[in-house]
Write a structure and sequence with these properties.
single chain; alpha/beta; seven-stranded parallel β-sheet; about 20% strand
């Protein structure tokens, strides 16, 4: 094992000269042999997990384990003594990402007694996050209100038969949801989000900066869930509470994205969310030799997929977009949508046929993915100006379906995250014969609620 890791390190180090140029920095994922002595104990989880996180585990009898322990600060100090700067770490995988302008620091890191192996995962120039303009004008939709309370978004929830569940009083109230995305430009200024219940924000890429500047992908994604302007747009879970996390570096595509995403998921877990929805996916990187092969779509290879699986094992209901590679050379689902225990969402058109861009399954080891589909072509979203737009992508099918899953779990709180996935499968249109394009098909949310409630009353 040690020899294999050494060989991998040497092979990666030989690639560095190909990327050398003035002013560039390098990031390395350092795999530690252990996390060191932090003084933590599974008997006192409140020292490193929130009350909500502990309660979520307790609900389903999920044990707190050593994976929940942080990395010892002394280990970070040892790594930093090489001259490299720590950027992001994972307690679940005992990894730390270190940055340096000197690529040879990888050799120094690999020789440390606490280090198992080192992998190169990013190169580029130092970047500066976008700043907010001085104008803080409130952004109000100029769209004409419709008679339908759902406004221009009615067809999104109708396809899932979710309106009756809303009418029954379940709109996500009390549910804690993390949205992991590329950025949430102007969400704090758009009138559609005036009633948004914010648990907090967290910027993994630029820790000291706002999530409300830069990329607007998360703004559109969030609107599918939480927009609340009757007659203009009503999201599928407008009364849930949201944690907004930026994990995507929009300037480049390197494996460090997986470290950012893993850190985001670990943070969401530690503060005690019930649900994670993420419309990010990866398979090809700017350095071809770091990209994935389809044979690795097994849920056990990619760091990001293993992180998604661990989140599910800790009781979180994880929704993930299947990807938009359906008409590309790749064609298949992207990482982490191959993960076990999560709910992967593909896209369909208004006629309920697969959107041609929606990535298809199955996984490399034959599991059904995507799990289900929702409207992903011509989705109603709110753009960063506060106005209605129509957009395409599994990025939007995912929060649309996730929002209804949030409401369904609110209505059926005794179920575990695993039981929720089984329920959604069972009441989807292709449950008896799942396929590689649509998975189990389109869920009927209200039917799932009604049947499960009826079954529960019989077993009392």
């Amino acid at each position: 094992m040690i020899m294999d890791n050494l060989i991998k390190t040497i092979l990666l180090l030989t690639l560095f000269p190909l990327w050398l140029s003035a002013g560039e920095s390098y990031c390395f994922r350092v795999y530690l042999k252990d996390k060191g002595d932090t003084g933590c104990s599974t008997e006192y989880p409140e020292a490193y997990l929130s009350r909500q996180s502990i309660e979520r585990r307790g609900k389903d009898g999920i044990a707190v384990t050593e994976t929940d322990f942080p990395i010892a600060p002394a280990y970070i100090d040892t790594l930093s003594a090489t001259g490299a700067k720590p950027l992001v770490k994972s307690k679940w995988f005992s990894t730390v990402v270190m940055e340096s302008k000197d690529s040879t620091v990888a050799d120094k890191l690999s020789k440390l007694s606490i280090v198992d192996s080192v992998k190169w995962i990013w190169k580029g120039t130092h970047r500066f996050p976008e700043e907010r303009t001085k104008t803080e004008k409130r952004l109000v939709s100029s769209d004409k209100p419709l008679d339908d309370i759902y406004g221009y978004a009615g067809k999104q929830i109708e396809m899932l038969n979710g309106i009756k569940l809303h009418e029954a009083g379940f709109r996500g109230q009390g549910m804690r949801v993390a949205v992991i995305d590329a950025g949430f430009q102007n969400v704090d200024r758009i009138s559609a989000f005036d009633s948004l219940k914010i648990l907090g924000t967290h910027n993994v890429v630029f820790p000291d900066c706002s999530v409300y500047v830069g990329d607007d992908h998360g703004t559109k994604v969030l609107s599918c869930l939480a927009a609340n302007i009757p007659g203009i747009m009503l999201g599928t879970a407008p009364e849930a509470s949201y944690l907004l996390i930026k994990s995507e570096d929009s300037d480049s595509e390197f494996p460090i994205e997986e470290d950012y995403w893993t850190a985001a998921v670990e943070y969401a877990d530690s503060v005690g969310v019930d649900v994670i929805t993420s419309s990010l996916g990866y398979f090809a990187y700017d350095a071809d030799e770091l990209s994935y092969d389809q044979s690795e779509l097994n849920g056990r290879t990619a760091m990001i997929s293993r992180a998604a699986r661990l989140a599910a094992e800790k009781g979180i209901l994880v929704f993930c977009s299947a990807g938009n590679e359906g008409n590309s050379d790749w064609g298949k689902i992207t990482f982490p949508s191959d993960a076990e225990g999560i709910f992967t969402v593909g896209a369909v058109c208004a006629d309920k046929k697969r959107s041609n861009f929606s990535s298809v399954g199955f996984t490399a080891d034959g599991r059904v993915k995507p799990d289900a589909v929702a409207l992903g072509s011509g989705c109603c979203v709110i753009d960063p100006s506060g106005s209605i737009r129509y957009a395409n992508g599994t990025s939007f099918a995912t929060p649309i379906l996730a929002g209804m899953g949030i409401c369904l779990w609110q209505a059926l709180p005794r179920l575990s995250n695993k039981e929720m996935i089984v329920l959604l499968h069972r009441f989807s249109s292709k449950y008896k014969k799942p396929e590689r394009e649509l998975g189990y098909g389109i869920p009927d949310i209200y039917k799932a609620y009604r049947k499960e409630r009826k079954n529960a009353s019989r077993t009392k």
